[in-house]
Specification:
By secondary structure, the protein is of the alpha/beta class. It has a single domain (6-329), classed as Rossmann fold (3-Layer(aba) Sandwich). 35% of the residues lie in helices and 19% in strands. It contains 8 helices and 10 strands. The chain has helices at 30-35, 46-52, 61-92, 115-127, 147-152, 167-178, 247-263, 281-304, and strands spanning 6-8, 25-29, 103-109, 135-139, 183-190, 195-205, 209-213, 239-244, 313-317, 323-329. An 8-stranded mixed sheet has the order 1-2-10-9-8-3-7-4, with helices on both faces. A two-stranded antiparallel ribbon has the order 5-6. Strand 9 (313-317) and strand 10 (323-329) form a beta hairpin. Helix 3 crosses helix 4 (115-127). The longest helix has 32 residues, at 61-92. The radius of gyration is 20 Å and the shape is globular.
């Protein structure tokens, strides 16, 4: 794709050329996207960016300036527009205008693609815009069933698949947020012990924006036993982002992250994965690829990747973790 250009994204791979003109998306290369916020100062310092960076992510000042600053400005515009529409609707209904419910952003993508870093960066950047200083981030890991329950259901080796989550609790959480409740609780997950932390909650108190990050947040509603379709978590999103990359690249990133964790977090005796710390380099690579090929890869192909087309915006990454282009759904 040539620098500084935008084009219509095709509806699908291998479609007819004239289908490009009828696509519901516009695709912008990195140079074009970066130019949309070229005159806006970057609110984050290098040390702040370092604290937000995940393992293996190539996040630096340039990436934040060229990719996440335009995205945060676009999201801020959406939040402002939703606020105006809220006021206009309440005037139309002749009601005293109550506080607007939080603007909810869903953020999805594969294991190891860097979605957690994206979520943290967006949280910090959105909070710098004066119109919405209170931004909360909730990951869906806390809504996984506890390991004991997963084991009872025979799902421990399918952790991260849609059925491993308490989807009813997650849906109730998002509904409570969009209902405007003063306080909403979410469970906490520990990556050290690889389990939900019993009796610990994070309390969300009337934020301006809530980012809900997780593998399966863009899953469509399930068809119930009676044939009717229920609600999906994504039904309550005001905007959604999918962090995308080639599956081969993501597999490599997962392996690289596993090797880094083997030298760091896995060496903590309290870690669920302490057993991997003693593996040789070759053994660690083999084990990481086995886990990917048997769990994370199939989950990506079967459940996560099919939800990409449901996102409002797609960030497509290159081999070095930098974002190469952005695909945005038209209004």
């Amino acid at each position: 794709m040539s620098s500084g250009a935008s084009r219509q994204a095709p509806l699908g791979h291998g479609g007819p050329e004239d289908a490009r003109e009828s696509s519901p998306y516009v695709e912008l290369d990195r140079a074009t996207w970066a130019g949309l916020a070229a005159e806006i100062p970057n609110p984050l310092r290098e040390d702040e960016i370092a604290n937000l960076r995940g393992l293996g992510d190539a996040l630096d000042l340039r990436e934040v300036q060229e990719v996440y600053l335009p995205l945060s400005r676009l999201l801020s515009m959406y939040v402002e527009a939703a606020s105006r529409l809220h006021r206009q609707q309440e005037e139309f209904l002749h009601r005293v205008t109550p506080p607007r419910t939080p603007f909810v952003i869903g953020l999805a993508g594969s294991v190891a693609v860097g979605k957690s870093t994206t979520a943290r960066v967006l949280q910090q950047m959105l909070a710098h815009w004066p119109e919405h200083p209170h931004v909360e981030l909730v990951t869906t890991d806390g809504f996984l069933y506890p390991n004991a329950e997963l084991e009872r259901r025979g799902l421990l080796q399918r952790k991260g698949f849609p059925e491993s989550y308490d989807r009813r609790a997650l849906l109730r959480f998002v509904v409570d947020i969009k209902s405007g409740r003063d306080e909403v609780e979410a469970p906490i997950y520990s990556h050290l012990v690889y389990d939900v932390v019993p009796d610990e909650k994070v309390v969300i108190k009337r934020p301006d924006i809530v980012i809900v990050e997780g593998l399966n947040v863009l899953q469509p509603a399930r068809v119930r036993d009676d044939g009717r379709t229920g609600l999906a978590v994504s039904d309550f999103f005001d905007f959604s982002v999918y962090v995308d990359a080639g599956t081969g690249h993501i597999r490599d990133w997962y392996t690289e992250r596993f090797l880094r964790l083997r030298e760091t977090a896995f060496r903590d005796p309290e870690s669920y994965f302490a057993k991997y710390a003693s593996l040789s380099g070759d053994e660690a690579v083999e084990e990481a690829q086995r886990i990917w090929d048997s769990i994370n890869g199939p989950n990506l192909v079967q459940n996560v990747l099919p939800t990409r087309s449901r996102a409002t915006l797609v960030l497509r990454k290159d081999r070095d973790h930098s974002v190469r282009y952005v695909r945005l759904r038209k209004l």
